[in-house]
Specification:
This protein has about 140 residues and is of the alpha+beta class. It has 4 helices and 6 strands, in the order H-H-E-E-H-E-E-E-E-H. Strands 2-1-6-5-4-3 form a 6-stranded mixed β-sheet. A hairpin with a 2-residue loop joins strand 5 and strand 6. The longest helix is centred in the first third of the chain and has 17 residues. The radius of gyration is 15 Å and the shape is globular. The N and C termini lie far apart (about 45 Å).
């Protein structure tokens, strides 16, 4: 099961984020999935997750996530990633700065029956927002 979960985690980043295919969210995430996102936001369904993702992509429409390492053990998969792009939109409630972004983070996913049941993101959102605001 670990190999399959690792493959599913890779699909989450490659297809949901990089290919911008929101339909995959319903396939990969359980209906009652819980996401614990940086900044304290919690999502409790695929629909809420889609809205959160869209706010980020509205701010950084060319965001590209590179998977640096993916490790799995049973129903748990940890992904170390890097996100690059340029801040050209208003999705994070900050006027577009045109500044490039380059952030690294970790996402920990827990799978149940081949779908994401819960996930935790850890990265420096505060640092990114300060950079975009020119602070």
């Amino acid at each position: 099961m670990t190999t399959t979960n690792v493959q599913l985690a890779r699909r989450w980043f490659e297809e949901v984020w990089n290919a911008r295919n929101p339909g995959i969210i319903d396939e990969l995430a359980a209906p009652a999935c819980v996401g614990h996102h940086e900044g304290g936001e919690t999502t409790r369904s695929p629909g809420e997750w889609r809205a959160m993702q869209q706010r980020f992509l509205d701010a950084i429409p060319d965001a590209c996530i590179t998977l640096e390492e993916v490790l799995g053990d049973g129903d748990q998969v940890v992904v170390r990633w890097r996100c690059t792009g340029r801040h050209t939109g208003t999705g994070l409630d900050i006027e577009p700065s045109g500044r490039p972004i380059d952030v690294r983070g970790v996402t920990w996913l827990r799978f149940e029956e081949g779908r994401i049941a819960e996930g935790w993101d850890s990265w420096n959102l505060g640092g990114l927002l300060a950079h975009l605001a020119g602070v």
